[in-house]
Amino acid sequence: MNLENYFISQFKSEHIGDDGALIKQNVYSKDAFFENVHFKHEWMSYYQIASKAMMINISDAVAMNAKPKYALLSVSMPPRITKKQMKELASGFKDVADKYGIDIIGGDTISNVKLDITITIVSQTKKPLLRSNIKKGYLIAFTGELGRSKKDLKKLMNLGKIHKKSKFIDIKLRDKFLSNAERFLSSGMDISDGLFSDLDKLSSVNRVGFKFNTKILKSIGCSGEEYEMLVAFDKRHKKAVLRRAKQSRTPLNIFAKSVRKRYVNCCKANHF
Amino acid sequence: MNLENYFISQFKSEHIGDDGALIKQNVYSKDAFFENVHFKHEWMSYYQIASKAMMINISDAVAMNAKPKYALLSVSMPPRITKKQMKELASGFKDVADKYGIDIIGGDTISNVKLDITITIVSQTKKPLLRSNIKKGYLIAFTGELGRSKKDLKKLMNLGKIHKKSKFIDIKLRDKFLSNAERFLSSGMDISDGLFSDLDKLSSVNRVGFKFNTKILKSIGCSGEEYEMLVAFDKRHKKAVLRRAKQSRTPLNIFAKSVRKRYVNCCKANHF
């Protein structure tokens, strides 16, 4: 067990294990977005940094089929920051909040060595989508295309430039597809650590393995920060799910089915 | 306006302005506790760091007369951390959570250069205590003793040692007094930035000044991180409030009354 998982294993709440914690109809989620851990400040404008910090957090809410309502920000400001940059940062937070109907209700700002952000999202759902509920024989699918995020990160690490519409900067969420298809989906999560690593989580929770119907390269399966959706559903809902995907213009790739087999994640760990 | 306040002023939610954001009967609060900003790792054990991070966050809930229910942790781990230290850290979070009946329901852990913690607390209240509602002629009081925190911080900065029961390490909250006296208190907040700075906030919100009935030295009024309570109440409740303070063994110092006068904070700003 890596140290990160060891730390998490110390906490035993029944609410831990999904993209957010479900309590009655509320979902609580919280993710960090830290300079030199998740981004370098040369890579993105302050506006883009704030927007992405919001989007990766909203992704957890959307992944549970919840509607984000409130956000709390914690922002540690680097000493170099100017008033103009701070305004840009605030605009990034606010524009995404406005787009999703989120009220930014509080938080904390401090002065620190670098720009480190954590965001808490309070969201609401009547039909939560959890990581559990996968039975053997269910179909497994992901939305959109995978692999671009890892490629673009590599470019940035090699001092290259990426398009401002790159998924690494400008995340698209699949909230329309999820709310359209909610009746037919059994299980879901967002692809933040990478398809293969996130399948590993579904495998542990549901005690199933996966039989792939197509070969997926490591460059695709090990690409993290994709923020596409990974979903599972009963095969008798296949047509209905595909129809809802089409209606919401969401490419949907059914790439595996759940089986009684051990799943082995072949990606190297990102953390620690 | 300093840069921190400028940033906060960019957000206009009606829920911003108290120690936490009140939405129906829920209170949401979030505070950062960062290495080299709020503590140095030589000053405290990992257990003490985690406990204090929890306590300063619970203080916001208690200050609003709310009962903390859930916590989300975001912990950035330094590369030097060992498994043993991580366990100590987890114990610090858990022991305080257990003491206050809080369920730690999620969060995020990352690998970073230093130990930076943010905590979100979800709490519940039937009778919230806000910063507003002070009328002219109300009595203003603080609990406990002030000044020790600043003195102890100075000792630590000069490489001295402090007692492990020092308020700088081991915070006592005034939840018993607050729940006992809730009927009689009009307004309240915790003293985190220092008495004089926190009076400044009450002054802005309520458009009142304060007439002191006793001289308070800067070494006391400008001492931050005290986590005592600052409260206001109608003078006809004076006896009742003092009785409840006594019942809960809480020293209560009535030091001023609110007046139609401008208030001037004589402390230097801590931030930025």
Automatic annotation (TrEMBL), chains A, B:
Protein function: Catalyzes the ATP-dependent phosphorylation of thiamine-monophosphate (TMP) to form thiamine-pyrophosphate (TPP), the active form of vitamin B1.
Residues the entry annotates as binding Mg(2+) 1: D31, D108
Residues annotated to bind substrate: H38, E225
Lineage summary: Bacteria, Pseudomonadati, Campylobacterota, Epsilonproteobacteria, Campylobacterales
Binding annotation for ATP: G107, D108, R131, S192
Keyword terms, alphabetized: ATP-binding, Kinase, Magnesium, Metal-binding, Nucleotide-binding, Thiamine biosynthesis, Transferase
NCBIfam families: PRK05731.2-3
Example of a GO MF term: ATP binding
Annotated PurM-like N-terminal domain residues: 17-122
Gene3D superfamilies in the cross-refs: PurM-like C-terminal domain (3.90.650.10), PurM-like, N-terminal domain (3.30.1330.10)
Protein name per UniProt: Thiamine-monophosphate kinase
Gene: thiL
